[in-house]
């Protein structure tokens, strides 16, 4: 969808937002769900709508809480039942200069102005600390844009009495707070407003008419900026930039013009443009972005161009160079395979629109910005926000080196027919130690990336990791692995011979990878995904007889783990070698969820149709209770037991693992996908922490749901109130007209949130 790439197509984003949302959900039926609380100093309806779109573009489906107009500070300091029950994953404070309660005048002394500055800062700092204490989640705070007028002209920026000077000093205090608090982030609207054009950004019409702090057309840019921070927090950044060569990294065609005929360097303006772009790419590498080449060229010509004396980038700046005459989409897929990265980790930069179109069509997930004019290359990539930095570890700074080392390992492996001999040849040395301050940031970073490094899916902050290190109840170990090619950084946390039992529900592929890693590290590892026999009991994990598991792994490892498993779990079923237990668990999950939905829907039908007592009971029991599991579940429904330790969120995680397993096998499971969407609906309306029996509430009246704390308005906010498509004019009317913001003549009436 080109409308999400710089330059943003704001008209489409504003007019077609519901249609765009449907299309994005269709593209990614299993997004990551996150709760975002927007605490606003102005109207935030459209901010939430646009932020939701951009997050969906990154595979994150947001559920929103919005404070009442200008109640951001009150909600943060004193709370509301709605916000407290919302349990946000991220809080975004949407304020601007109009929310400052005091600004200096020429009558104020410098001491008075300093005191005023401290008071304004304390107003916000107190709020941030209250939010941290209550919710312990990331907080995103706007810095302050500037008024689009200067009372003293140019003097306003340096004179202590100037408003511009005051706001600039206040922003500096915000930055100092961000530097010392790891879960606090600045959304830089001071930059955004300058980039957009300060006069247009702060158009007073939208403030006085609708209490929007910025003009309507600027809101997508604002939302994109906030979304970039959030997607970076949840590991949805792009990781690699794949570059064409001819007329992308230099002017001209090296195969035709020769190295001497290329435009690059200080001699001509065109050459300066390309040198600056190469410098920008080099700077991206310095913050951990992986660079690669995908060019239709002879390799010798490509390398000659990269060794141009006035060039900035050199061949060793790239982890892969594909210079050949193969289709570029195939080259990009090969690069992804070599680096063990998904296509959605890549940005493809090419001056040729035809090549961009082919790659975009053939490699789903890759970002393909429209590079138009070499002088705009930097702006296009930078404004895209593909590589937003929210944390920067030492490992990030040397990613290119690490990938080069991995390439050397791959070459070395190819020389061996026996994998064990290859591992021996690496001369690996592992160091295991307790959590140390030097590695805290990296350990936390790994827990917040893919589940490849996190079997529990628990996301930990640096403070969480420090707390674990200081808590005697935790065994906190981390490991570094060094081989003859280099340092692999933090790889695992267990001493030699340690028994690792994975009780989580993952995929067979990951289970096999974990087993291989354990073998290399001389660990004893088995997979034993846990099964709850009766999901309807209040405390499903408290009774050993209610727990089962499948166990898989190497035979001697399974035997070693049996003693522990038999103590904890009543029903242990051998599944076979590595990966087999997770496969058995996936099959179990599919059957269990199917039975759950079948029983609930049969019961719903029974009660919907049985309107009189003369119809009687069916075989003396409730309709739908045709299996022991169904009978137990419906008993919980009858008794109104909708809470328990085994939750809908857990069930969704297990079903997600099963669907991922199917995806890895290129298998489509329509029934399972339908069930997952049904569970997601329950989660959206507030049922994620309830027992699976709560699924029956989805089929009941709104009042019955409300009694159990479920709110159907959340579904309306997430999915919209209709599904049918509209033509362009109808979409505009739906999105704005019903709200009273637009009629055939333009803006009229009050916008939601403004009274």
Give a description of the structure.
- The radius of gyration is 29 Å and the shape is globular.
- It is an alpha/beta fold.
- The longest helix is centred in the C-terminal third of the chain and has 30 residues, at 580-609.
- The chain folds into 4 domains: 2-233, SGNH hydrolase (Rossmann fold); 240-384, Rossmann fold, CATH 3.40.50.1000; 394-493, no CATH class; 592-712, N-(1-d-carboxylethyl)-l-norvaline Dehydrogenase, domain 2.
- The two termini are 36 Å apart.
- Helix 3 (45-57) packs across helix 11 (219-233), helix 25 (580-609) crosses helix 27 (648-664) and helix 28 (670-687) crosses helix 30.
- Helices cover 47% and strands 13% of the residues.
- The strands form 6 sheets. Strands 2-1-3-4-5 form a 5-stranded parallel beta sheet, with helices on both faces.
